[in-house]
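If you are new to this repository, start here. Below is one unmodified record pulled from the training split, so you can see the exact layout before writing a loader.
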Amino acid sequence: MNIKKVDIETGELVGEKFAKMFYSDIGRLFNLSNSQTNLLLCMVRDCMYGNKISMSPARKKLYVKELGLSSQNSLNNTLKALERASIVQKSDPEDNPYRYVIDPNLFFKGNDYQHAAILTTYSSGSRKVKVLDLDKEPMIP
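And here is the target side for that same chain:
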């Protein structure tokens, strides 16, 4: 008898094979400092579907307090380090300088359709992530 398991939060069918990774291991895997790991985890927790997050001045102020950082400059430096590691990227710096996207190969919040809408391209050894606005851009087959 084949019993199917269902994730009660997402409705997704869960197979018998899985891998478990603990959030604390992400920092070790990418050689992140404690501040970088903690900021990343806050961003993952608070991101919208499609891995988008607005790092507005108000959110940064909250994160400075939550993470016990000394200043917003400290948070900005930590965020820049995550960008240099290609873990987060600005998704549309011209139109929305506060919007970031978290690398969908590491974490993803959303469904398969939303995941397909995030294109990851590689050029010159760096990773660029483009978030498509599904209301304005057609899906690529």
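Two things worth knowing about this chain: The longest helix spans residues 34-46. The helical segments are 23-29, 34-46, 57-67, 72-84, 112-116.
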